[in-house]
Amino acid sequence: MSEKKVLQLSAHVFKIDDDKKSWKELGKGSIPVAVLHDEGRNTYRVVAMDGQQAVINSLIQPDMKFTKTSAKFGQWSDINASTVYGIGVGSEDLLAQFQSGFETGIHARPKPSPKQRSNSGDRGTSERAAAGSAEGAPSSDVLAQLKYENERLKIALGTSATNAKRWEQELQTLKNNNARLKTALQESASNVEEWKTQLTAWKEECIRLRAQVKELRASGGSAAAAEVDTLKEQLAQLQGQVAALEGDKSRLESKVMAESGGRRKVGDQLRQLGDQFAGKLAELNALNAQLANIASTE
Asked: Is the model's pLDDT at 127 over the cut of 80?
């Protein structure tokens, strides 16, 4: 009777390399692994195929044991093949399915009695060799697994040390950037307060000039009136420009508080706005001087 496929999945399979005492992968990457059941003999075996080659053909015996060594890796000792096989899958669920199929094969037949084991001859010797010749000594599969886990820990520790060093450098960079940001914000806040004071002074100057214009118009004089009208237009333009600059200043104040990413650009814009304020102040001062001259001649 042909064998029936109980379970099939894709996995990485290994066996212990006796010379290096480490895992040696069988096949190229993930390959098909199946648990087959011979209903006539009521036997189970694990078969792993790499193309047309069976890299694992392990008959499951009642005295075998499948050991789950991690969430996605397990192993078993095959006395007939005198080696230890390992299997790595992509998820905990797949490993649980394989373990269930394997243990079904273990329980399919009763375990041999001690008398049957003693009569097995060479097989008994192989079993004792696989379990460890010295009393209390760890078996070869346990030693191999310990070495495998030790190598994994070494790799993990090396990776952690590298990441810790990189994170330390990134943290220092963030600290430096934060210090520069704090300094830039302090400078911007100081400049904003200074510009507020200047803007208040310019507003007062505009009010004073407006009062002088009214006085000149009340005093009469056609030439003076024409010049006053001209100066009034200039004054109105300057007032509009001052109002626009005030709006720009308010928006820049908001950008300084809300946008840390554009600190340098905002700082340049604030300095440019300060230069524009200075220019308009000079024009206001010149206009004030002209108004004063007209007032004195009248």
From this structure: no
Determine the average pLDDT of the residues in 101-119. 75
State the pLDDT confidence band at 126, using cuts at 50, 70 and 90: very low
Nearest to 266 by CA among 275, 254, 278: 254
Distances (CA, A) of 43 to 100, 102, 191, 199: 15, 11, 88, 97
CB proximity list for 127: less than 8 A, separation 6 or greater: 63, 79, 117
pTM score above 0.90: no
Q: Are 228 and 217 in contact (CB under 8 A)?
A: yes
Residues 6+ apart with CB under 8 A from 77: 64, 65, 83, 84, 85, 130, 139, 140, 141
